[in-house]
Amino acid sequence: MKIGKNQLITLDDGKKYIITEEKMYEENKFYLMAGVKEDESDLNNQFQIAREVIFEGDTNLEEVDDPELLSKILPLFEEKENE
């Protein structure tokens, strides 16, 4: 499955997110995802960073919860476009 901006995804735990941005860091693709209410009517003010993992031809997302890695990735998403 191809993953891209503005795509609605459901994680294994049932939580729904919309991909708002994607950035590359050390040859890995990371996504900033905004949580979506269960009925998909609106955002729920929850955010998550995920890394794209390709295994045996399948594309999956792995939630990033390592504080050290997050401290390096979050500034990338704070940069304004065309800077």
Question: How would you characterize this protein structure?
Answer:
The chain has one helix at residues 67-78, and strands at 8-10, 16-25, 28-36, 43-55, 58-63. It is mostly beta strands and 83 residues long. Strands 1-2-3-4-5 form a five-stranded antiparallel beta sheet. The longest helix has 12 residues, at 67-78. It is globular, with a radius of gyration of 13 Å. The termini are far apart. The mean pLDDT is 89.
Q: Could you describe the largest sheet, including whether it forms a barrel?
A: 5 strands, antiparallel
Poorly predicted residue ranges: none
Mean pLDDT: 89
- Backbone CA Rg: 13 Å
Helix/strand/pairing category: mainly beta
Helical content (DSSP H or I, runs of 4+)? 10-25%
List the total number of helices: 1
Q: Strand tally, please?
A: 5
Order of helices and strands: EEEEEH
Strand content: over 45%
> What's the overall geometry?
globular
